[in-house]
Amino acid sequence: MTTKAPRGVRLVITLAGRRNAGKSSLINAITGQDIAIVSDHPGTTTDPVAKHYELLPLGPVTFYDTAGLDDEGELGELRIKATRKVLWRSDVAVVVISEEGITDYEKKIIADIQELEIPFIIVFNKSDLKEPAAADIAYCAENNLRHLVTSAKTGLDVDAVKETIIDIAPPEMKREPVLAGDLINEGDWVVCVVPIDLAAPKGRLILPQVQVLREILDCDAIGITVKDREIDEALANLQRKPALVITDSQVVMSVAGDVPDDIPLTTFSTLFARYKGDLEKLVEGAKAIDSLEDGDTVLMGEACSHHSVADDIGRVKIPRWLTQYTGKDLNFEFYSGHDFPENLERFKLTIHCGACMINRTEMLRRIKECNRRGVPVTNYGVAISKLQGVLDRVLKPFKLD
Fold it and tell me: Could you name the CATH architecture of 7-174?
């Protein structure tokens, strides 16, 4: 079993700049490892390179070394596009400046980062070759841009770069994230309902289930895991009522019928809706289901690529349930991994997965972008609970306004 932190809980730190600015050298200096290829030849890094690292007190992070923003030609344009995709899901950005100083390339990427509202620092690298120009320092001061002067080669102020990254990281990344920990207390019994069907991974549980079970243990509560067919027997044999029942969304309607109303009930996906996103906005987005019309197109967003099976939740079940619920002739488009369409306006609704494989920043940015374009957005679990008529009950433990 892997001991690595899941990709979706890692803070993403992206180094961006022109070719030969020393991005690879700086990552090597920060991590103390030769993980990025270094060369005096411009354009050595062609595709984003990920490096996992433990940056305390933030914890597990991923550094991305990206292609130069001044790359040329048709292939260069593709590399620049890949760099911008990485920035889209970044929590922190480091704009690396070479001895050539701040040019229009750097000003453009700074503007893009500011538009994305990503906290960032400017690092004047290669100070061993040339000190930053007074005009560039003045530009940073005039625009209130945080900046450092370093040398990856000599190690000058590399520690200061790490300290600044920690300082500017989003506040939520410095807090211990909560899935269900605020809903239970020490000694509580928590029942987790985990159906085993064709979509269940062979020999293991899916990540949301694993993370919730771990948090139950961290809270010194008692976790009981059963399949949906065993929920009646489990409840009957408990010496006292569980503090919470958490079920897979696919069986939420049957589980809601089996669990007495006085026992709090929610779903793994609803927990992830607030852990990785904005639960209130995703609940609001689900209301758009009632206004869908014939011919409308629904975007189905999947954060991971996987082989679709006969009863795939995102590609088969939800489209079927949505069609049955609305009685409308709907179109569905599917986007997997880090791909997300640019022309969102043509969709009437976005239904996103639980986002266990992407970080919170990327999920929040997707929610924000959908809202900015006037496209309602919800997630699998919230949508399923609405379609099954149990959304109010599933939301009750969270005491939303």
Answer: 3-Layer(aba) Sandwich (3.40)
Q: Provide the total of helices (H) and of strands (E) in the chain, helices listed first.
A: 15, 14
Q: C-alpha distances in angstroms, 253 versus 194, 229, 259?
A: 14, 13, 10
Decide if 7-174 and 181-271 have a common fold: yes
2 vs 6, higher pLDDT: 6
Main-chain phi, psi angles of 221, to 5 degrees = -95, 175
Q: What is the pLDDT of residues 327-367, one digit of tens each?
A: 999 999 998 876 678 789 999 999 999 887 787 878 888 89
The CATH architecture assigned to 181-271 reads 3-Layer(aba) Sandwich (3.40)
Residue 306 CB-half CA count within 13 A: 17
pLDDT tens, position by position, 132-143: 999 999 999 999
Peptide bond into 260 cis (omega under 30): no
| Distance, CA of 133 to CA of 372 (rounded, Å) | 39
Q: What is the dihedral sign for C-alpha 135, 169, 353, 8?
A: positive
In single-letter form, the type of residue at position 265 comes to L
Which position has the token pair 């771990």? 214
**All structural domains of the chain with their residue ranges:** 7-174, 181-271
* Under 8 Å between Cβ of 15 and 64: yes
Q: What is the pLDDT of residue 244?
A: 97
Q: CA Rg, the chain, in Å?
A: 24
**β-pairing verdict for 265-267 and 189-193:** unpaired
Closest by CA position to 126, among listed 148, 146, 143, 111: 148
The strands making up 120-124's β-sheet, listed across from edge to edge, are: 49-55, 59-65, 11-17, 92-97, 120-124, 147-149
What is the 8-class DSSP label of residue 246? E
pTM: 0.70
Per-residue model confidence (pLDDT) at position 198: 57
**What's the distance, CA 375 to chain centroid?**
19
